[in-house]
Design goal:
The chain has 166 residues and is an alpha+beta fold. Helices cover 31% and strands 23% of the residues. It has helices at 67-72, 74-88, 97-116, 151-161, and strands spanning 24-32, 36-43, 56-63, 120-122, 130-135, 141-145.
Length: 166
């Protein structure tokens, strides 16, 4: 199963207005009871007005690029966004047990995807349910929880990821 991260939206999720080339955008991934895993891209200037859900899984900033440039860089952006999402999952620690469990599953799936793309390199074997990874470019080390994922869980996760990946 191969997932690619959806590109940056061209309109603000808060105001519905088009985003201009060069504008800084704040991206959120969060859980909602209605839609499950959701992504919202808003202007950085709108961040204070954005009603932040309690279950934010990740948050990062991007700059809007020209659509033609975006298409040419689609593959690179997809991997860069996957990296952004992956590392943002380590910055959020709060949440209830379901939110933490969802975050750990996302870490595991994204780590495996990034390892497959040679962006992360595993360091040794899984010890005590944790896999050490090295981010090749930055040399940053992270520990990712590794759990046995059932096929049904992966299908459920794939459905939830449809909000942020294509």
């Amino acid at each position: 199963m191969d997932w690619q991260i959806k590109p940056l939206a061209h309109t603000s999720a808060l105001s519905g207005e088009p985003l201009a080339v060069g504008e800084r955008v704040e991206c959120f991934i969060f859980l909602t009871e209605e839609n499950g895993l959701t992504r919202a891209d808003i202007r950085a200037s709108e961040t204070e007005r954005f009603p932040r859900p309690e279950s934010v899984l990740g948050r990062w900033q991007r700059v809007v690029k020209d659509r033609g440039e975006e298409e040419r860089e689609a593959r690179e952006q997809s991997l860069a966004t996957a990296e952004d999402i992956f590392f943002s999952l380590f910055e959020q620690e709060d949440g209830d047990a379901d939110t933490v469990s969802e975050r750990e599953a996302l870490k595991q799936v994204l780590a495996l995807m990034l390892e497959r793309k040679r962006i992360l390199r595993s360091q040794g074997r899984v010890e005590d349910g944790m896999q050490a990874y090295l981010h090749v470019r930055s040399k940053r080390e992270v520990s990712v929880p590794m759990h046995e994922l059932e096929p049904q869980q992966l299908l459920g996760l794939e459905e939830k990821l449809s909000a942020i990946v294509i």
